[in-house]
Design goal:
By secondary structure, the protein is mostly helical. It is built from 10 helices and no strands. The chain is 78% helix and 0% strand. Helix 1 packs antiparallel against helix 7, helix 5 crosses helix 7 and helix 9 runs antiparallel to helix 10.
């Protein structure tokens, strides 16, 4: 593989890692709110969280462009006050990837949280544990398989994100050209079939490895927690 191809691989890993790191804690919080709380507008929040799963990724990228572009309601203050520009940058690619993979983490964490025996939390309450103590010592360990599986699945999905990234961050080699975008560029280049094939195999291998790792982590955590 050429230096440019390895650069696309490294950039994909970097973007996917950033996207998971930035979205994991908010996803856990949202999953807890949707699972444990009942409030007006809960169904609407649930729909908004899962919207990236059902709308075209290009629409998500366009929405991010409208919001975080240098003339957008969020992007303009960031650029003018802090000198932060997300559009057409690596950070922007990570943001687009995080938005697309966010519902995957939420869904996985919700499944883990729904399997938590609330009787154990009640027992901890009777023993004098406060809300924070109960969450850290009882709830969090029991839901951890869902968190880890969701993070790995989101990472694997982030490696293959295309539509939102190319719309919001463009296809700039060395900055935003991740594996899927490099494959697309190769298919548009005369004689680029071999490059596209190599990158596709790498992408396939990374995706399968991520999914297998997610399953392995979930099984190991269930065994560790005594559920297997």
């Amino acid at each position: 593989m050429s230096a440019e191809e390895w650069q696309a691989v490294r950039l994909s890993l970097d973007v996917a890692t950033r996207s998971v790191a930035g979205s994991l804690l908010p996803a856990v919080a949202v999953a807890w709110v949707l699972t444990r709380l009942r409030f007006p507008g809960r169904a609407l929040l649930d729909a908004l969280v899962h919207l990236p799963l059902v709308v075209p990724p290009v629409v998500v990228g366009w929405g991010l462009l409208m919001l975080f572009g240098i003339r957008g309601p969020i992007g303009a203050p960031l650029h003018e006050w802090f000198g932060v520009r997300l559009v057409f940058t690596t950070d922007g690619a990570a943001l687009a990837t995080a938005v697309m993979s966010f519902p995957l983490i939420v869904r996985s964490v919700r499944l883990g949280l729904e399997n938590v025996d609330q009787g154990l939390e009640a027992a901890a309450r009777t023993l004098g544990a406060g809300p924070v103590d109960r969450f850290l010592t009882v709830t969090l360990p029991l839901m951890s398989p869902g968190i880890l599986a969701g993070a790995v699945t989101a990472f694997a999905a982030g490696l293959g994100e295309f539509g939102a990234v190319i719309t919001f961050a463009s296809n700039i080699p060395g900055q935003t050209q991740t594996l899927p975008l490099a494959i697309y560029a190769a298919t548009q280049t005369p004689g680029g079939e071999a490059t596209a094939a190599r990158l596709a195999l790498v992408s396939f291998g990374l995706a399968v490895s991520g999914l297998l790792l997610a399953e392995l982590i979930a099984r190991r955590m269930h065994l560790w927690l005594g559920r297997g």
